[in-house]
């Protein structure tokens, strides 16, 4: 699939916070004496190659959505951005810890255009590296207590992050349970991703906001904003996992189907398909391996059920709901414009 | 090996704290709605069987050394025991998280006389369960902020635990690196276990003490106490891994040799062995599998180098160092007696 004309570019806020967030991340995972461990982490984060030599390759770094959102929420509510930095870094580190472990679980060989940590260093080291990154994330968060936010706020932020992390893990657990079930409905799926992907994204917005204000209306608005935005992000991700362009996404086309992943379009398709189509879909998803023709057949069935249009529509509806969540509170006009650019990007991005 | 006459029994302090610690643990891992995940955790902790039905089987529960030590340090310094409970629970949960992941890494099929989590539920679910337990541990620690210890103390404890957890992971990483090296010396090995096993044990004593007093001499004494005690514990563990009795330890005799684990006696043996013995030892440890005869040959070489006596001597010397660390501070006589019983148990236990 070629890039859609008018596909949105990465909104300006990503570039605005990038340097400060990266500095904070660099401090958390220093090029120190324990190179054996830290090289794995720095490699996964896209900063160095397998030998630990610096590499400049923007493609192998993530978008840093969670930290960006945390910084944005704080700035939009006129908070002190330096207060949001420790949480921003912690969110990115914890998110990346979950990716290292996800790659082990799914036996994925590539992420962000490069070999995964476990595929290079083996499962045991990748497992420990993931745990180390989670721990580095916890430590990054504790830097907040060095600022003058006060110990109560520091503890509150710590509690929000721990709860969110637990929510993420419960979501991962539901996701694993879904793998062996064919009776998952779209609502089950949406509940699962609200935890697995949504928790850290929502928490980024919540913590960023709570470092700037104690106004309950503003906090609730940013929580709902993060929630809907997380759904828009994941549903568009699911779309790209089936209909995305390999060169842009860094993943083979139809990748999610080949891995028999029960992403939103497939759950929707299983709900909607009837007769022969439904039988085929169930049969194909019970095979050990799917060849190109099988993947094409699944794509065709999904198109027939309207899964493609429906999935994209859900991403865009969720994006609109995210914006609507901010309606009731007063934000500077630059922040309103940027929120709009952000949700539009997340719902229509090509990568 | 039969039980040595006079092998020490579990000291009384374990029984004294057990119920309160278990209550705190039960609260942390409730039999809740997310049974799919929590059953794995409760099973690993020895509370329920694979179906989630309660089982009373003391053998499948751990000794709870870390929480016991935390409670003891707090009580010996006349602190409020209820303050030590959240940390005690967190230490036990984080320790058990590392065991679930260790079993995945080492592909171990049994722990504490029952099948390991990954061997029942598969690697992906065990990986997530481990992460969940770590998170439950973090959450358990945050309960301390509900007590009147004050937010500064709560944050300090949180920082100590995070640092200790990172130390443990760095130790695991060194341990993995050692697996592929034949040039590890006994000092490298002692540095590694001071982190991998020692960190959480030392931190238990440190945090327990710091919840009772701010006296730097007492804090330093309990830190050194925990450090030496952790070494005594691990070195005796290494002894039992080679010369322990299967029925008592719950692990096959010679288990560590069969798994080609470079535990202390082996590292010592490799340093000391010469000529044919050294060649045999290196050759056997480079084989993919070891049969009973191979295990016996390794045991014989180790005995020849004096590894058996030397290992036990180191465990007992470390135990004495632990006691000596408390010499300079004033403790109630019951606490002195119990410290003595504890170090004696750790250095000479049969399980």
Written account of the structure:
Two copies of one chain form a homodimer. With 351 residues, the first copy, chain A, is mainly alpha-helical. Chain A has one domain: Farnesyl Diphosphate Synthase (Orthogonal Bundle). Helix content of chain A is 71%, strand content 1%. Chain A has a two-stranded antiparallel ribbon with strand order 1-2. In chain A, helix 14 runs antiparallel to helix 15. The longest helix of chain A is centred in the middle third of the chain and has 29 residues. The relative contact order of chain A is 0.12. Chains A and B meet through helix 4, helix 6 and helix 7 of A and helix 4, helix 6 and helix 7 of B.
What gap, in angstroms, lies between the N and C termini of chain A? Answer: 12 Å
Oligomer: homodimer
Which CATH class of chain A applies here?
A: Mainly Alpha
Number of self-contained structural domains of chain A:
1
Shape of chain A: globular
The helix-strand sequence of chain A is HHHHEEHHHHHHHHHHHHH
Output the CATH topology of chain A: Farnesyl Diphosphate Synthase
Q: So, the CATH homologous superfamily of chain A? A: Farnesyl Diphosphate Synthase
Largest interface: A-B, 40 and 40 residues
Q: What structural class do the secondary elements of chain A suggest? A: mainly alpha
């Amino acid at each position: 699939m070629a890039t859609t004309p008018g596909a949105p570019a990465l909104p300006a806020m990503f570039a605005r916070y990038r340097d400060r967030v990266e500095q904070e991340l660099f401090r958390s995972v220093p090029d120190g004496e324990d190179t054996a461990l830290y090289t794995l982490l720095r490699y996964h984060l896209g900063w160095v190659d397998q030998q630990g030599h610096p590499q400049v390759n923007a493609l192998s770094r993530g978008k840093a959505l969670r930290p960006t959102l945390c910084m944005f929420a704080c700035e939009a509510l006129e908070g002190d951005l330096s207060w949001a930095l420790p949480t921003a870094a912690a969110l990115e580190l914890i998110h990346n810890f979950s990716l290292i472990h996800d790659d082990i679980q799914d036996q994925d060989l590539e992420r962000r255009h490069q070999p995964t940590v476990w595929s290079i260093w083996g499962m045991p080291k990748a497992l420990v590296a993931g745990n180390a990154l989670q721990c580095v994330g916890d430590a990054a968060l504790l830097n907040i207590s060095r600022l003058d936010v006060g110990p109560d706020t520091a503890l509150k932020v710590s509690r929000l992050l721990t709860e969110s992390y637990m929510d993420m893990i419960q979501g991962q657990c539901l996701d694993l349970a879904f793998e062996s079930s064919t009776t998952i409905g779209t609502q089950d799926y949406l509940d699962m991703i609200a935890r697995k992907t949504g928790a850290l994204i929502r928490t980024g917005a919540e913590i960023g906001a709570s470092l700037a204000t104690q106004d309950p209306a503003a906090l609730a608005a940013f929580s709902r904003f993060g929630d809907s935005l997380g759904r828009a992000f994941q549903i568009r991700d699911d779309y790209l996992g089936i209909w995305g362009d390999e060169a842009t996404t860094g993943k083979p086309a139809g990748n999610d189907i080949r891995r028999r992943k029960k992403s939103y379009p497939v759950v929707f398709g299983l709900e909607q398909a009837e007769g022969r189509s439904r039988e085929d879909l169930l049969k194909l998803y019970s095979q050990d391996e799917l060849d190109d023709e099988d993947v094409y057949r699944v794509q065709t069935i999904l198109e027939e059920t309207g899964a493609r249009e429906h999935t994209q529509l859900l991403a865009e509806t969720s994006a609109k709901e995210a914006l609507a969540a901010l309606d009731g509170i007063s934000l500077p006009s630059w922040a309103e414009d940027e929120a709009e650019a952000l949700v539009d990007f997340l719902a229509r991005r090509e990568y």
